[in-house]
Amino acid sequence: MIEILLLSAGVGGTAAALWYVAPAGRGLHRYVVPRAQLRADVVRLEHEADDLTCALLRVTSENTALRKDRDTTREALKAARARIASLGKQLTSFDSLCAENTELRSQLANATAVRPLPVDDDAPTVPQGTPVLPLTEAPFAQPPMAD
User: Fold this and answer.
1) In 106-140, which positions are buried (b, 16+ CB within 10 angstroms) versus exposed (e)?
2) Distance (Å, whole) CA 94 – CA 125
3) What gap in Å lies between CA 110 and CA 74, rounded to an integer?
4) Are 101 and 93 in contact (CB under 8 A)?
5) Is the pLDDT of residue 53 over 90?
6) Torsion of CA 83, 84, 90, 93, to 10 degrees
7) CA 54: distance to chain centroid?
8) Tens digit of pLDDT for each residue in 18-41?
9) Is the Cβ–Cβ distance between 136 and 143 less than 8 Å?
10) Residue 22 — φ and ψ, nearest 5°?
């Protein structure tokens, strides 16, 4: 019973949809758009197409400029990376030279260091075996000059 009601409602709904959609018999298929309105639509659509073409050309030129900027930036980045690598090598060699310089300075400081002599309490204060004479009595001594 319910099936028959639903089936009849479906058939009725389909008939109503066809009545409102199908133009046959009511003259809707003979509706003609006035030529002036069609011409105005063509002109409007041509203007819209021209505007869209201009927008497309503008965006294309901006895209080309941005690509050139991107390529220039990439080249600058590549050059900067090469410069950084070169400076890194220079810094490494500079560090090794600084380390070598520090080592050489320490060796020089050790070689020329003035150190106090070791103190021996038993060491004589007068040289032994070496004749010690006053300067005036020393051989080859010059007599004092008279003023």
Assistant:
1) eeeeeeeeeeeeeeeeeeeeeeeeeeeeeeeeeee
2) 53
3) 54
4) no
5) yes
6) -150
7) 36
8) 566 665 555 455 567 788 888 999
9) yes
10) -75, 125
